[in-house]
């Protein structure tokens, strides 16, 4: 455990470690939400219409996943020095619940809908699935912002 | 009257004070500022990644640009408006903050970087739009964009502290 506690000491005692890690957290979220926006606007038929869905989905999926992983790793580094504070924060608990739902939805049901749509001969306009995806992911973002403001 | 004095008056004006006293001012305005970043910066990152040939390799650069820009530009509009409001609410503290100054410097350089792309590379993009190679200069512009936007986010977050 000595390695772990050394890391926690650094995170706790350095004045700028946490805000800089939070900036990387935001950068990962920006990449993830950018990918989510592109894919869902395409599914809604309001943007990116000149790019084939199969191409778009493949690219956006990999880069969105990269953003998600960056956000998760940096998020853990912010969480571990002060877990009690976060565990008692309702916005944090809401964020984590939404995150679990968003990940499950995106990587199972949503993925299947996109694959079916990419193969379909006749393009269809989707409404419920992309809007739900946008609400879930932006909900995660808003709840995250609320951790500092609302408690 | 010096710039600091003007910003001091703005920060302590009754309008700025009443904004800051509203419980929802910072969550809503700052939240919108950060969330809109995914629409503006998030979409620009995709264009940068395409210029670096690590994303959308099968698509011409011009197509990615034409698809992404109609959404990224209003995104930047939201960032700018919410950013100005946040600045005015704390004009003096922000103006005298070192991280804020670095952030503004980086944003200015990012603007010049975009202008450079628009005038030097965009007019002759048809020559390399579909090809395997992207001019070194255009790649350099993409790298500057990626690194400086990360820098803007770092400075924005560090503004809560003093440089």
Question: What's the layout of helices and strands?
Answer:
The complex is a heterodimer of chains A (151) and B (163).
Chain A: H1 2-13, H2 17-44, H3 53-79, H4 83-87, H5 90-119, H6 128-149
Helix pairs in contact in A: 2-3, 2-6, 5-6
Chain B: H1 3-11, H2 14-21, H3 25-51, H4 61-89, H5 91-95, H6 98-121, H7 136-158
Question: Any overview of this molecule?
Answer:
The complex is a heterodimer of chains A (151) and B (163). Chain A is built from six helices and no strands. Chain A has 151 residues and is mainly α. The mean pLDDT of chain A is 92. Chain B starts with a helix and ends in a 5-residue tail after the last helix. In chain B, helix 3 runs antiparallel to helix 4, helix 3 packs antiparallel against helix 7 and helix 6 packs antiparallel against helix 7. Helices cover 77% and strands 0% of the residues of chain B. The chains are: A mainly alpha (151), B mainly alpha (163). The interface between A and B is large, with 37 and 35 residues.
Outline type of chain A: elongated
Biggest interface and its residues per chain? A-B, 37 and 35 residues
Give the proportion of residues in helices of chain A: over 70%
- Helix count of chain B, per DSSP? 7
Quote the average pLDDT of chain A: 92
Percent of residues in beta strands of chain A: under 5%
Give the tally of structural domains of chain A: 1
- Give a count of the beta strands of chain A, DSSP E runs of length 2 or more: 0
Strand tally of chain B, please? 0
Q: Indicate the structural class of chain B.
A: mainly alpha
Rg over C-alpha atoms of chain A, rounded to the nearest angstrom: 18 Å
Query: Main sheet of chain A, how many strands, which sense, barrel?
Result: none
Coarse morphology of chain B: elongated
Oligomeric state of the chains present here: heterodimer
Portion of residues in beta strands of chain B equals: under 5%
Radius of gyration of chain B: 19 Å
Helix content of chain B: over 70%
SSE order of chain A = HHHHHH
């Amino acid at each position: 455990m000595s390695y772990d506690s050394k890391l926690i000491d650094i995170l706790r005692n350095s004045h700028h470690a946490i805000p800089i890690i939070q900036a990387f957290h935001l950068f990962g979220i920006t990449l993830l939400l950018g990918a989510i926006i592109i894919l869902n606007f395409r599914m809604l038929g309001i943007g990116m219409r000149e790019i084939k869905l199969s191409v778009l989905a493949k690219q956006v999926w990999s880069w969105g996943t990269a953003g998600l992983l960056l956000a998760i790793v940096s998020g853990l580094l912010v969480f571990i020095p002060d877990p009690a504070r976060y565990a008692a924060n309702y916005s944090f608990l809401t964020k984590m619940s939404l995150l679990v739902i968003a990940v499950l939805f995106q990587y199972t049901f949503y993925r299947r809908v996109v694959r079916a749509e990419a193969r379909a001969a006749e393009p269809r306009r989707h409404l419920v699935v992309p809007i739900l995806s946008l609400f879930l992911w932006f909900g995660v973002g808003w709840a995250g912002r609320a951790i500092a403001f609302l408690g | 009257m010096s710039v600091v004095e003007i910003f001091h008056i703005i920060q302590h004006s009754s309008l700025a004070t009443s904004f800051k006293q509203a419980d929802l001012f910072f969550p809503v305005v700052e939240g919108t500022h950060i969330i809109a970043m995914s629409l503006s910066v998030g979409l620009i990152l995709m264009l940068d990644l395409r210029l670096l040939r690590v994303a959308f390799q099968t698509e011409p650069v011009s197509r990615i640009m034409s698809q992404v820009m109609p959404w990224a530009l209003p995104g930047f509009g939201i960032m700018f408006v919410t950013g100005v409001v946040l600045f005015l609410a704390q004009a003096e503290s922000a103006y005298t903050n070192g991280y804020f100054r670095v952030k503004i410097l980086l944003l200015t350089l990012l603007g010049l970087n975009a202008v450079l792309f628009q005038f030097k590379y965009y007019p002759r993009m048809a020559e390399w739009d579909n090809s395997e190679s992207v001019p070194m200069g255009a790649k350099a512009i993409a790298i500057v964009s990626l690194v400086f936007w990360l820098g803007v986010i770092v400075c924005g977050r560090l503004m809560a502290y003093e440089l």
